[in-house]
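To whoever is on call:

I kicked off a structure prediction for a single chain this morning and the downstream step that reads the tokens threw a length-mismatch warning. I double-checked the sequence; it's 99 residues and nothing unusual in it as far as I can see. Pasting both halves so you can look.
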Amino acid sequence: MYQTSDPEFADRGVAALEKAGIACYRLGEGARKLDPTFGRWTDKQIGLYIKEPSEVPRANEILVSLGAVVDTPIRIPRAWIIVLALAALVVLGVLAAGR
């Protein structure tokens, strides 16, 4: 349901979910410090899982209230943007062919 590399957030999330009566568990280790080689958090992830699928919306609200990031779905560009881009490609193609 949710992945994080922050073990403290995972602990807070599991505690809040259990306090709300939502059966859940976590898998993974996470990362407690920055990777000195890359200068960013390591890719070790912790997965938070909800046992009862019907509890997922409520669990999501709780995690977001704790600071969880919500991924926005990828949207297809509007039709006029696609038409404009295709027209620009056609114009560039005509210009390139004329040289």
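Update from on-call: the warning came from a stale cache, not from the record. Cleared it. Sanity check on the structure: The mean pLDDT is 84.
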